[in-house]
Amino acid sequence: MGTKRQHDEVESQGAASGKRQKSYIGRKRQAQEDSGAKKRIRAIERSLRRNRDMPANVRIDLERELASQKQIMLDKAYKKKRSTMISKYHMVRFFERKKASRLVKQLKRQLEQESDADKAETIRRNLHIAEVDETYTLYFPHLETYVGLYSSTAKKGADEEETEEGKLAAAKAALEAERPPMWTVIEKALADGPPALEQLRDRRSPDDTGEIDTTQPPIR
Fold first, then answer.
1. How far is CA 65 from the centre of its chain?
2. Helices (DSSP H) in 89-216: which residue ranges?
3. Which residues make Cβ contacts (< 8 Å) with residue 201, sequence separation at least 6?
4. What is the number of other CB atoms lying within 10 angstroms of the CB of residue 71?
5. What span, in angstroms and rounded, lies between the C-alpha atoms of 77 and 71?
6. Where is the segment annotated Disordered (predicted)?
7. Which of 25, 158, 196, 209 could lock 189 by a disulfide, CB 3.0 to 4.6 Å apart?
8. Cβ–Cβ contacts within 10 Å for residue 45, how many?
9. d(Cα 25, Cα 12) in Å, to the nearest integer?
């Protein structure tokens, strides 16, 4: 029995050691790749500064490579920050999306059952708000700090939503809550269609228009 325990312990330690080694190698490899790209960028910039009389074709090739290397570094930084921000605001976006989706379903049912024209028009307006809310939770720019839609009504709603009347009151409060500035931006993008929404969600800064930069030479 003692021998078997020793064998298990060695095997377990070996497995644990293997996991640590694999994780360490992965991190080290990534660091080496990033370091290599940074060194290459510095080397190209140094060469361009020091060799003013280099042939034009060589300079063009180096400038293109420099632009390519810088773009690679920017893309890596973007993906890293995007992943961090998605993880950070995942839960609040998830719960707000559920709430908005529930509002959309409730209002659609009400609209189907409503025969009064004036009341139906009010429901349509509220339905539009709820649909934009739902879109907001999906397409709010990933790289920007997420501003909640229902934060001012969340605490009150949590206590009241146990009954049907409470649910209706919470829904009404949510529809009447003040919307953040990004809401109108997303409302417009929703009207413009899916490509506009995707461009907004993936933008890298508030000034990002999604247009292609034609000032740089093409990278081949």
1. 29
2. 90-113, 117-139, 151-160, 164-176, 181-192, 194-201
3. 138, 139, 140, 141, 142
4. 12
5. 10
6. 1-40, 193-220
7. 196
8. 14
9. 20
Type of residue found at 37: A
CA distance 141 to 126: 24
Report which of 92, 99, 97, 107 is spatially closest to residue 161, judged by C-alpha positions: 99
CB 133 within 8 A of CB 103: yes
Domain ranges of the chain: 8-87, 89-201
Which residue is associated with the tokens 């080496």? 32
pLDDT tens string 68-117: 888 888 888 888 888 999 999 999 999 999 989 989 998 999 899 888 88
What six digits make up the tokens of 65?
A: 């490579």
| Residue 55 DSSP class | -
DSSP-based three-state secondary structure for 146: coil
Q: Taking all residues of the chain, what is their mean pLDDT, rounded to a whole number?
A: 76
Distance CA 20, CA 145 (A): 34
Distances (CA, A) of 93 to 1, 81, 86, 136, 184: 54, 17, 9, 9, 18
Phi, psi (5° rounding) for residue 42? -65, -40
Q: How far apart are CA 44 and CA 23, in angstroms?
A: 32
Length of the chain equals 220
How much of the chain exceeds pLDDT 90, in percent?
31
